[in-house]
Amino acid sequence: MSPVTRPAIDLRWLIGVLLVANAVCLFVGLTGDSITVGTTMRKNIAGISVRLLDTRETFSILSSIGKLWTGGNIFLAVVILLFSVLFPIAKLGANAAIWFRLMWPRHQSPGWMSRTAHALHALGRWSMLDVFVVGILCVWGKLGDVTRFIVEPALYWFFVAVLVSMANALLTEKVINSRGQQVAGVCGERTG
Q1: Total tally of structural domains belonging to the chain
Q2: What is the CATH number of the domain that holds 109?
Q3: Which of 7, 98, 99, 144 has the largest CB neighbor count within 10 A?
Q4: Digit-coded pLDDT (tens) for 138-154
Protein backbone atom coordinates (compact mmCIF):
# COMPACT_ATOMS: atom_id res chain seq x y z
CA MET A 1 0.00 0.00 0.00
CA SER A 2 1.56 3.29 -1.07
CA PRO A 3 1.29 6.37 1.12
CA VAL A 4 -1.29 8.92 0.10
CA THR A 5 0.31 12.09 -1.17
CA ARG A 6 -1.50 15.35 -0.78
CA PRO A 7 -0.97 18.18 -3.21
CA ALA A 8 1.07 21.05 -1.84
CA ILE A 9 -0.95 24.01 -0.66
CA ASP A 10 -0.75 26.87 -3.10
CA LEU A 11 0.75 29.55 -0.91
CA ARG A 12 -0.62 32.24 -3.22
CA TRP A 13 -4.10 31.66 -1.76
CA LEU A 14 -2.73 31.93 1.76
CA ILE A 15 -1.20 35.28 0.78
CA GLY A 16 -4.63 36.40 -0.43
CA VAL A 17 -6.26 35.38 2.86
CA LEU A 18 -3.54 37.23 4.77
CA LEU A 19 -4.13 40.33 2.62
CA VAL A 20 -7.82 40.35 3.55
CA ALA A 21 -7.01 39.73 7.23
CA ASN A 22 -4.45 42.54 7.11
CA ALA A 23 -6.94 44.97 5.58
CA VAL A 24 -9.62 44.15 8.18
CA CYS A 25 -7.21 44.36 11.13
CA LEU A 26 -5.70 47.59 9.82
CA PHE A 27 -9.12 49.21 9.34
CA VAL A 28 -10.30 48.23 12.83
CA GLY A 29 -6.93 49.20 14.30
CA LEU A 30 -6.93 52.66 12.73
CA THR A 31 -10.57 53.58 13.29
CA GLY A 32 -11.47 51.82 16.55
CA ASP A 33 -10.79 53.00 20.08
CA SER A 34 -7.05 52.53 20.69
CA ILE A 35 -6.24 54.36 23.87
CA THR A 36 -8.09 56.07 26.70
CA VAL A 37 -6.41 58.89 28.53
CA GLY A 38 -7.75 59.57 31.98
CA THR A 39 -7.06 62.30 34.48
CA THR A 40 -8.08 61.90 38.09
CA MET A 41 -7.36 64.28 40.92
CA ARG A 42 -8.18 63.18 44.45
CA LYS A 43 -7.94 65.06 47.69
CA ASN A 44 -8.12 63.65 51.18
CA ILE A 45 -10.45 65.73 53.31
CA ALA A 46 -10.85 64.65 56.93
CA GLY A 47 -9.65 61.15 56.07
CA ILE A 48 -12.12 60.76 53.20
CA SER A 49 -10.83 60.54 49.63
CA VAL A 50 -12.75 62.97 47.46
CA ARG A 51 -12.52 62.88 43.68
CA LEU A 52 -12.20 66.46 42.50
CA LEU A 53 -11.61 65.79 38.83
CA ASP A 54 -12.19 62.69 36.73
CA THR A 55 -12.01 62.98 32.94
CA ARG A 56 -11.51 60.35 30.29
CA GLU A 57 -11.02 60.72 26.59
CA THR A 58 -10.76 57.82 24.15
CA PHE A 59 -8.92 58.08 20.85
CA SER A 60 -8.51 56.04 17.73
CA ILE A 61 -5.16 56.22 15.97
CA LEU A 62 -6.71 58.52 13.37
CA SER A 63 -8.36 60.80 15.92
CA SER A 64 -5.17 60.94 18.01
CA ILE A 65 -3.30 62.23 14.96
CA GLY A 66 -5.88 65.00 14.62
CA LYS A 67 -5.67 65.78 18.33
CA LEU A 68 -1.87 65.96 18.20
CA TRP A 69 -2.04 68.19 15.12
CA THR A 70 -4.54 70.64 16.61
CA GLY A 71 -2.65 70.58 19.91
CA GLY A 72 0.51 71.83 18.22
CA ASN A 73 2.43 68.53 18.23
CA ILE A 74 2.77 68.57 14.45
CA PHE A 75 6.02 66.60 14.28
CA LEU A 76 4.61 63.71 16.33
CA ALA A 77 1.34 63.82 14.35
CA VAL A 78 3.26 63.58 11.06
CA VAL A 79 5.47 60.72 12.32
CA ILE A 80 2.45 58.71 13.48
CA LEU A 81 0.55 59.53 10.25
CA LEU A 82 3.46 58.34 8.11
CA PHE A 83 4.31 55.16 9.99
CA SER A 84 0.88 54.20 11.34
CA VAL A 85 -1.42 55.11 8.46
CA LEU A 86 0.27 55.86 5.15
CA PHE A 87 3.07 53.29 5.27
CA PRO A 88 0.84 50.32 6.25
CA ILE A 89 -1.72 51.28 3.57
CA ALA A 90 1.00 51.63 0.92
CA LYS A 91 2.53 48.32 2.00
CA LEU A 92 -0.87 46.61 1.80
CA GLY A 93 -1.40 48.05 -1.69
CA ALA A 94 2.03 46.92 -2.89
CA ASN A 95 1.50 43.43 -1.45
CA ALA A 96 -1.90 43.29 -3.18
CA ALA A 97 -0.33 44.32 -6.50
CA ILE A 98 2.28 41.58 -6.19
CA TRP A 99 -0.39 39.04 -5.24
CA PHE A 100 -2.51 39.92 -8.31
CA ARG A 101 0.55 39.45 -10.51
CA LEU A 102 1.24 36.09 -8.89
CA MET A 103 -2.35 34.92 -9.26
CA TRP A 104 -2.99 36.15 -12.78
CA PRO A 105 0.34 36.32 -14.56
CA ARG A 106 0.52 38.43 -17.65
CA HIS A 107 3.67 40.30 -18.43
CA GLN A 108 5.41 39.49 -15.19
CA SER A 109 8.61 41.08 -14.18
CA PRO A 110 10.09 38.69 -11.63
CA GLY A 111 12.88 41.15 -10.90
CA TRP A 112 10.38 43.88 -9.99
CA MET A 113 8.29 41.53 -7.85
CA SER A 114 11.32 40.13 -6.06
CA ARG A 115 12.82 43.56 -5.36
CA THR A 116 9.47 44.96 -4.19
CA ALA A 117 8.74 41.98 -1.93
CA HIS A 118 12.22 42.13 -0.43
CA ALA A 119 11.94 45.89 0.14
CA LEU A 120 8.52 45.52 1.76
CA HIS A 121 9.83 42.82 4.06
CA ALA A 122 12.85 44.96 5.02
CA LEU A 123 10.78 48.11 5.52
CA GLY A 124 8.10 46.24 7.47
CA ARG A 125 10.12 46.58 10.62
CA TRP A 126 9.45 50.32 10.54
CA SER A 127 5.74 49.61 10.99
CA MET A 128 6.51 48.83 14.60
CA LEU A 129 7.74 52.38 15.19
CA ASP A 130 4.24 53.63 15.95
CA VAL A 131 3.70 50.92 18.55
CA PHE A 132 6.94 52.10 20.13
CA VAL A 133 5.76 55.73 20.03
CA VAL A 134 2.47 54.83 21.73
CA GLY A 135 4.41 52.93 24.39
CA ILE A 136 6.70 55.90 25.00
CA LEU A 137 3.69 58.22 25.25
CA CYS A 138 2.08 55.92 27.81
CA VAL A 139 5.25 55.78 29.90
CA TRP A 140 5.74 59.54 29.61
CA GLY A 141 2.13 60.19 30.59
CA LYS A 142 2.36 57.88 33.59
CA LEU A 143 5.13 60.01 35.04
CA GLY A 144 2.45 62.22 36.55
CA ASP A 145 0.27 60.99 39.39
CA VAL A 146 -2.96 62.16 37.80
CA THR A 147 -2.70 60.73 34.28
CA ARG A 148 -3.42 57.17 33.28
CA PHE A 149 -3.52 55.39 29.95
CA ILE A 150 -5.71 52.43 29.12
CA VAL A 151 -4.91 50.42 26.02
CA GLU A 152 -8.13 49.70 24.14
CA PRO A 153 -8.85 46.72 21.81
CA ALA A 154 -8.18 48.53 18.51
CA LEU A 155 -4.51 48.96 19.43
CA TYR A 156 -4.24 45.18 19.63
CA TRP A 157 -5.99 44.89 16.24
CA PHE A 158 -3.42 47.31 14.84
CA PHE A 159 -0.59 45.30 16.34
CA VAL A 160 -2.00 42.13 14.73
CA ALA A 161 -2.25 44.00 11.40
CA VAL A 162 1.45 44.86 11.63
CA LEU A 163 2.38 41.24 12.38
CA VAL A 164 0.15 39.86 9.59
CA SER A 165 1.64 42.38 7.17
CA MET A 166 5.17 41.29 8.09
CA ALA A 167 4.22 37.61 7.70
CA ASN A 168 2.58 38.39 4.37
CA ALA A 169 5.68 40.17 3.07
CA LEU A 170 7.89 37.27 4.17
CA LEU A 171 5.61 34.67 2.58
CA THR A 172 5.31 36.71 -0.63
CA GLU A 173 9.08 36.95 -0.88
CA LYS A 174 9.36 33.19 -0.32
CA VAL A 175 6.79 32.41 -3.05
CA ILE A 176 8.50 34.74 -5.51
CA ASN A 177 11.93 33.29 -4.81
CA SER A 178 10.65 29.71 -5.13
CA ARG A 179 8.92 30.51 -8.42
CA GLY A 180 11.72 32.72 -9.77
CA GLN A 181 13.10 30.24 -12.25
CA GLN A 182 9.63 29.20 -13.41
CA VAL A 183 8.48 32.81 -13.85
CA ALA A 184 11.72 33.78 -15.57
CA GLY A 185 11.18 30.95 -18.06
CA VAL A 186 7.62 32.07 -18.77
CA CYS A 187 8.71 35.67 -19.30
CA GLY A 188 11.49 34.66 -21.66
CA GLU A 189 14.20 36.11 -19.42
CA ARG A 190 17.51 34.40 -19.34
CA THR A 191 18.95 33.30 -16.08
CA GLY A 192 22.64 33.41 -15.81
Answers
A1: 1
A2: 1.20.140
A3: 98
A4: 555 555 555 777 888 99
